[in-house]
Amino acid sequence: MSVLPARRSSWHARVPSLRRTTVRRARPDIPAGRHRGVPRGLPRRAIASCRVDGDRNLTAPVRPLATPVSPASKSQTIQGKSIMRLPSLVGLTAVCCLSGGASAEEVAPRSAPIVARLAGDAAVEALPQPDGATFYRAGDFRVTTPLPDGYPRPTPPGVVEVKRYPEVRRATFDGQGAAPDGMKNSATAFFPLFAHIKLRDIAMTAPVEIDYQGFAGGEAVPDSYDMSFLYRTKSDGQLESYGRITVADAKSRLVIAVGVAGDVTLDQVTASVARLNRLLADAGTWRAVGEPRVLGYNGPDVPRSKRWGEVQLPVQAVDDPAE
Questions:
Q1: What CATH number should be reported for the domain holding residue 300?
Q2: DSSP code per residue over 97-123
Q3: Is residue 172 part of a domain?
Q4: Would 203 be classed as within a structural domain?
Q5: Which of 18, 77, 101, 199 has the highest CB neighbour number within 10 Å of its CB?
Q6: What are the Cα distances from residue 6, in Å, to 3, 9, 10, 145, 296?
Q7: Domain count, the chain
């Protein structure tokens, strides 16, 4: 008599996403058909294996996140507890919730704050991506390259804001001679930095930052400059130095920023710095404490009229010298 192979249960065969799910062995101290720590009535396809603080039981059903989670990040710590991020179930990214309930905002990374808006009313739309990054749109302007983790969103063209930037790891090219003037003169620093990240398999981020030294505006030109490519996280690459490139952690900073449409030329830097200084004087809350820098969010593949940039000045509170 031939023996027919055992058939999978009908529900298992109909749900492709569960065909490779590992089924835990039954335990004598748990009633048949129950998953330890899972309340009765929870839909079977919403039950997933989860490790919470060693042998801690799962006491609440999974809940969808408000913000997509990067599939590459497998674990996260919330309120001192280690949790596992789960794969997609029925088209939703879910996370195991601790007793007491951790909100989606506690799971999703938070951006550094926009401290104040001093001029302009243009809105910025955040566009979350499946890998956990966020792109941005303001009218006809787009940012479609990930920002470093924790970086504040771009300032829309014409708008003036005070923003706080976190510490960030970046590769910096020590520039001498003619400084970048929009896209002009930028290749000297850009291509060595691009080769640096390509050789190390580091993903491109936005913005590209240019710090000017000895910039007096008017007819004067900068004495020197630094161009920097930013790492999305510090784990993307180690600290190092060779030739004219140095990888280091730039300290957190408070800046006043104005959004600029198109290429940010030296003439635009001069005009923008004058505007920022006028607004600082009117506000009376912050004062400039350094030289300007330019942030460029788009490459040469974007039409010049659609490029999005910023001019920034480092500032500190007038009543807090240690800011």
A1: 3.20.80.10
A2: PPTT---HHHHSPPPPPEEEEEE----
A3: yes
A4: yes
A5: 18
A6: 9, 9, 12, 50, 61
A7: 2
